Amino acid sequence: MMRTGYKIPTELEFQSERALYNILEPRYHYLVPEWMKTASDAEKRGVIKLARIAEPKLLKSIGRPRMDAFEPYLKEHPWFHKRGNPVVEPRVDVIEKFPVDPSEYQVPSWMNDDLYEAEQIPKPGGCILKLKDSIGIMRQKNWTRNQGTYHMFSGSFDGTTTTGSCYTREALGLEKKQELE
Fold first, then answer.
1. Are 127 and 144 contacting, i.e. CB atoms less than 8 angstroms apart?
2. Is residue 122 within 8 Å of residue 147, measured between CB atoms?
3. Where are the beta strands (DSSP E) in the chain?
4. Residues 54, 23 contacting (CB under 8 angstroms)
5. What pTM value is reported for the model?
6. Are 70 and 38 in contact (CB under 8 A)?
7. Residues contacting residue 160 through CB under 8 Å, at least 6 positions apart
8. Are 12 and 44 contacting, i.e. CB atoms less than 8 angstroms apart?
9. Cβ atoms of 28 and 57 closer than 8 Å
């Protein structure tokens, strides 16, 4: 395609070029000037519309990161770990910071609730999980429930269903029941 003359860039072209640079990954930015030469005005308006859809108003108000912005680095914030050798820096124990008199200690109410729930686990219905159970109590209930109920039948559990036990040779009277001694 042969081009003659020079076209004065319009606001539409500036906006579409800026939109392309914002939409495309940096590895494709070299394609933008050639696309700008060959694209029609309708295609350029479409790119601008795509940029508006792709970048919502909330993100537009935040702005893009700038290298010249005056704000401290993350490493300099007080909540970030300080630089230095951790062996040389003195360690402060939490217990030393906040000394507590043993007579002031009160057992939290959830500990009493957990103790009561742990006592109820071996009893009938004690393995039913509740929404307010702690993780430890849930683990104990699941472990107890997964142990099975073999001990409830005094060790004489045959492991068949009711329907399965009705249609055996023993149930039909063709064989005698073997007694366990």
1. yes
2. no
3. none
4. yes
5. 0.32
6. no
7. 168
8. yes
9. no
Tokens representing residue 56 in the block: 């919502």
Per DSSP, the three-state class of 177 is: coil
Residue found by looking up tokens 């109820």 in the block: 120
Number of other CB atoms surrounding residue 107 within 10 Å: 8
Dihedral in degrees, nearest 10, Cα atoms 136, 139, 144, 147: -150
CA distances (Å), 136 to each of 18, 118, 119, 122, in order? 57, 9, 13, 15
Say how far apart CA 19 and CA 49 lie, in whole Å. 9
Render pLDDT for 72-126 as a digit per residue (tens, 0 to 9).
555 555 555 555 555 555 565 555 666 667 777 788 888 888 999 999 998 888 8
Please classify residue 50 by burial: count the beta carbons closer than 10 Å to its beta carbon, then call 0-12 exposed, 13-18 middle and 19+ buried: middle
> How many Å apart are CA 100 and CA 162, to the nearest integer?
63
DSSP helix/strand/coil, 92: coil
Distance (Å, rounded) from C-alpha 138 to C-alpha 132? 10
